[in-house]
Design goal:
about 525 residues; alpha+beta; D-Maltodextrin-Binding Protein, domain 2; Dipeptide-binding Protein, domain 3; 16 helices; about 30% helix; about 25% strand
Amino acid sequence: MLKLKDCVAGLALSAALAGTAFADISVKVAYDADPVSLDPYEQLSGGTLQLNHMVFDPLVRWTQDLQFESRLAESWEQIDATTMRFNLRKDVTFHSGNAFTAKDMDWTFDRAKESPDFKGIFAPFTDIEVVDDYTIDLKTSEPFPLVLHTATYLFAMDSAFYSGETDDGKNKSEIVKHGDSFASRNISGTGPFVVSEREQGVKVVFDRFDDYWDTASQGNVDEITLTPIKEDPTRVAALLSGDVDFIAPVPPTDLARVEKADGVNLITMPGTRIITFQMNQDRVEAFKDPKVRMAVDYAVNNTGIVDRIMRGFGTVGAQASPMGYLGHIESLEPRFDIEKAKELMAEAGYADGFSISMMAPNNRYVNDDKIAQAVASMLSQIGITVDLQTLPKAQYWPAFDERAADMMMIGWHADTEDSANFHQFLTACRDEETGNGQYNSGGYCNPEADKLMDMANAETDIAKRTEYLQQLEQILFDEAAFVPLHWQNLAWGAKDGMNAGEIVNALNFPYFGDLKVSE
């Protein structure tokens, strides 16, 4: 809470005599959930990416205006149609004390390619070739327009630290989804903070890494304690009372309250995360019929959800791609017509409706449980009886991976800030080998849509890419591949005396390594 921790008596006395105050700066952060694992490639989620940017470093990272800035890569150049060369920083040290070299990036790339969650992102890439200790060539199978976009997901892992076997004979580098592995419990990166304490679901303590390479950063925080506070009112109250210094998210119901409060700042920006429901065609025969899927879409009042539940703090959606993305089709509008929905149900032979199960998280997205309750109520108007269960994030993701309900909520921010990424993970035909469809719990599959995605991913001409991606988006809309709800806006609350507005971004993982507190 911007508190100053007392130093040992001898140092304090010496400092006083010297006329200089030695003190450590601590900041308390409250999120709605904490990371589910310390493994940077176990779970593709916002919590993991936040952890990664605190403890690891990527080759490059996004700026607030969605440009690229160097991190472990000092510079880069396209040396041929399928090769991007990165010149790496020298004198970078891992938290273990091991020196960072090109072999660590090569090792990290190979591990990421094996991750069930991340291999889809790296599917277009064939290899990292080590040129020398501080030069690598990132190679693709064909010309690829999103090389730097993808390089933001290459967080250097300490290959020596994660290699070998544990005392019980397990491979230290194995990736275990929602399981107990060496990498899920132990961590060594090059980032600004080390994990000094972790109690899952209670707190994570990050201490400043004394040997961090980025000495130009204005960040001066020595300790960050991340505490998960699921309940929105409790999280906001903790900020306003001074118990914590930074919170995310600020719920729509409390935006005005935080904005008017003394001593705190409200920071907002438009978001690009689409909140959706998927309809499982493998579990529910009716969902194989596009008319039934469309009826579900017609029954859901997206505008009403944004107006009443989100208090206007969201953008009503009818597609995955937000405005500004190449695949966005401006003419697509949300469907909402109860009578039309009933007609479609009757045409499909389900005039009397049917029963389904539904699952949603209750601490992952803004108002996620309230949104799920509203959707369940809306579906009852067309005869679909919903058995709804909401779960904390830590329990929800294993259930999602198991496709444990007939309809499941999933929010998605395009990892590459590109339209193709939505389809790759949410609606592409499921393929365990490539990682496509990794978060497609509905079982939707259209080879024509997949072909358009592949064509877009191999096309460097922007006009042609736009054409392919918009054709893809139109197919998903016409076939009601999923139920789009809204793009979730972003809001953070922070105490005065911090440069919080400078470290946040549309990707929703603030760069806490650059957090500066006025002393």
